[in-house]
Amino acid sequence: MCGLKYLPLIALIITRATTSPVPTHLFLLGGAMEDTTASIYNRMREATGLDSPNIAVAISAAPSLADGLDAYYTDNPGSVSYENLFKMYGFNPQVINLAIDNYAEASSADSVQGQMNIDIVKSADV
What we know:
Elements: E1 10-16, E2 23-30, H1 38-48, E3 54-58, H2 65-73, H3 82-88, E4 92-96, H4 103-106, H5 112-123
Parallel strand pairs: 3-4
Antiparallel strand pairs: 1-2
């Protein structure tokens, strides 16, 4: 059973080829995605051509940055954190600090947090 708190109904996951800055793969994941669906996570990793690709994890569906970071970093009984979930499948995860309550600042290229989020996305393979 999926233990992730803020799994969106549909998540778009785009990977880019290591030699191209343009996305070359698109993965659609439904809200009923299981934490243990190894074939999906393995396919995302394999599509990058890297053993341990960087993945940018958005917590934007969380009602607050604190809630999103809690789900990203904290394992709970019956559920694994986003960070550990992606590590378990061979990714180097980085969290995009963008939630409902800090949207204006965190999505602006003119803010420190916004620029940090942009840099995370630019460095991501997934």
